[in-house]
Amino acid sequence: MKILLTGANGYIGKRLLPVLLEQGHEVICCMRNKLKFPTEGIYSHPGISLVELDFLKDIAISDVLKDIDVAYYLIHSMSANTRDFQKLEEISALNFVLLVNQTKARQIIYLGGITNEKELSKHLASRKNVEVILRKSRVPLTTIKAGIIVGSGSASFEIIHDLVKKLPVMVAPQWLNTRSQPIAIGNVIEYLTGVILKPETLNQSFDVGGPDVFTYKEMLLQFAAVCGLRRYIYTIPVMTPKLSSYWLYFVTSTSYKLAINLVDSMKVEVVAQDNRLEKILGIQPITYQEAVRLALQNPKQVSVNKII
Fold first, then answer.
1. In this structure, are residues 128 and 116 in contact, taking their beta carbons and an 8 Å threshold?
2. If exposure means fewest CB atoms within 10 Å of the residue's CB, which of 63, 236, 257, 286 is most exposed?
């Protein structure tokens, strides 16, 4: 099967690619700069071809893209700009639809965020808007919505890791009491590959999450327990979003732009509601603690069953 993988250089794309190749697919990796794509190891696989496209500009389709079967939309602009990333994501999605509509694709697969609350952050509202745009394509859309993704390299995972490792005592913002439903990166990859041209997933949207629902404070303490560390966390209501962003920026490895957008999102509860996909695909999500153990032991882990 011929698959277009946008965001191939991103966190999810890099973990999805080896699994798609292992399953025997031909993968066209799409990126803005081909020079940034690795050339060693799995990236030299004969099943990979590269296409350089910037979805923020007008899209001219090439012959290599016309006969694709499936297209993954994994483009994200949240870390690029604190003000107009929503507009950038809208432009990217619109241009992607223009391109895919000129192909023989039979499915678009989109990884978005859980958006069940009435009041959404700018990030989550943008993710929801992207889904609305993609749904206007002539190609059937399958949307998979996740909250915190637990895996080495994930922005949220690395922030939790840095906070736990560096701060024995935390005086933290009130949003640490917000609930979330974390999911292991291996399970996310299982969902993303499991829906490929599966009839009952076409033109459908699904929430996915692990078996645990925790506050961010509980996630930090559970993470510490896996590391064999004792941590103390006290939340205070007076820390402003700007101070919260500086708190993350100075203590963790995240950029300030990303910290601002993450803090905005962390005030919104992200708990799965429509999780039918778990039964449709027969996937058994692993616990948060097990996901943390896997991420710490195997930084390049892409599957809950196999290390690549």
1. no
2. 63
Helices (H), 141-287: 155-166, 185-194, 216-226, 241-251, 256-266, 277-281
Q: For 164-201, write each residue's pLDDT tens digit.
A: 888 888 877 777 888 999 999 999 999 999 999 999 99
The conformation of residue 270, written as its DSSP 8-state character, comes to B
Q: Nearest Cα to 252, choosing from 151, 148, 158, 149?
A: 158
199 is written with which tokens?
């009839």
Q: Mean per-residue pLDDT for 105-120?
A: 92
140 vs 142: CA distance, rounded Å: 7
Report the amino acid identity of residue 43.
Y
For the chain, the distance separating the N- and C-terminal CA atoms, rounded to the nearest angstrom, is 21
CATH fold of 2-214+265-297:
Rossmann fold (3.40.50)
Q: Measuring CA to CA, which residue among 184, 119, 189 is closest to residue 156?
A: 184
Would you state the structure tokens that stand for residue 225, as one six-digit string?
């327990």
286 DSSP 8-state letter: P
Domain ranges of the chain: 2-214+265-297
Q: Are 162 and 131 in contact (CB under 8 A)?
A: no
Sign, CA dihedral 37-43-44-50, equals: negative
Distances (CA, A) of 12 to 98, 130, 205, 219, 280: 23, 17, 19, 21, 22
pLDDT value of position 246? 61
C-alpha 63 chain-centroid distance: 29
Q: What one-character DSSP code corresponds to residue 185?
A: H
Question: Measuring CA to CA, which residue among 231, 219, 238 is closest to residue 180?
Answer: 219
Distance between CA atoms of residues 66 and 307, nearest Å: 33
Q: Which residue has the tokens 């803005």?
A: 32
Alpha carbon distance 152, 294 (integer Å)? 9
Q: Which of 17-31, 85-99, 256-270 has the lowest mean pLDDT?
A: 256-270
